[in-house]
Amino acid sequence: MAPSGATNIGEKKMYMGDVKSKTFIDTNASSASFVAAAAQPTTTFTLAKSSFGTNTARKITATTTGSSDGGKTITIVGTDENGDALTEVITLPGSATTTSGTTGAFLTITSATVSAQPAANVSLGMTADVFGSIFQGRTRVRQANVGSGGAIGSVEVRNQSISGTSLLTVRTTATEGDISTINIPQDGILYKNGAFVSFSEASCNSVTVYFDA
Question: Is 35 within 8 Å of 126 (Cβ atoms)?
Fold first, then answer.
C-alpha cells in the first residue's frame, strides 16, 4: 500500500511533492514567411527562423506565388514537440496559394530543401496552431495557468500525443494578458500515455502546466 499522499505507478511511487511545471510561450502570429522569406532557391532555403517560442512546436506551410510549380516538393527536416527527429515533405500546388500545415509540428527546423528550383517565389511560414510536450510518460496534471492572447478560445491538454484525446479544456478570455487558473482537486487528471498541450496563438500565448514527474 502506498503511504498517505502517494500514488503507486508500477514499481514507482509518486508523491504530491514530485510536482513539476513546464511553461509554453509563443506570441508569433501565423505567418507566410516566418521560417523563410519568399525566394527561388536552387537547393535549400535560407532559414529566417529555426524555432518559434518557448517549448513550442508549429506546423509549417508553404506559400507559392506562381502556377508552374505544381508537384515540386520541399523536404522539411528538424525535430518534433518531443525533440525527436522529424522529416516531412510539402508538395507545392499548381497555383498561387498557401498550403495547409504539415501533419507533424516542428520544435526546431534544421533545413528545407526543394526538389527543383521553383519558377516563382516560395516562402515558408506556419499556422496559428501551437503544440507542446508536457511529459512523455504516465503522469497526473494538477494545475494549469493559461494566458489569453486577446480572444476567446480553448487550450487542450491531451493524452498520448498532440492530436490525442483532450482530457482537460481551459477557456481563454477576450482580454489579452488575462490569466485563467484551473486547480484540479484530489489526485488530478491521469494521463496514462503522456500529456501534451495544444492551442491557437490567436487566443492564447502562454500556458504553464503543473504535473507529476
Answer: yes
Residue of 5, 27, 37, 3 whose CA lies nearest to 128: 27
Statement: residue 163 has pLDDT above 60: yes
Residues in CB range of 188: below 8 A, 6 or more apart:
140, 141, 142, 211, 212
Q: Rounded to the nearest 5°, which phi and psi values hold at 93? A: -80, 170
Q: 3-class DSSP state for residue 181?
A: strand
pLDDT at 145 over 50: yes
Rounded Cα gap, residues 164 and 197, in angstroms: 10
Q: Which domain holds residue 100?
A: 31-127
CA pseudo-torsion sign 140, 142, 147, 151: positive
123 and 162 assigned to the same domain: no
4 assigned to some structural domain = no
User: What's the predicted TM-score (pTM) here?
Assistant: 0.90
Q: 16 phi and psi, to 5 degrees?
A: -55, -30
Domain count, the chain: 2
Distance of alpha carbon 146 from its chain centroid, rounded?
A: 15
Distance CA 73, CA 93 (A): 9
- Report yes or no on 207 lying in a domain: yes
Answer for the pair 61, 124: CB distance below 8 angstroms, yes or no: yes
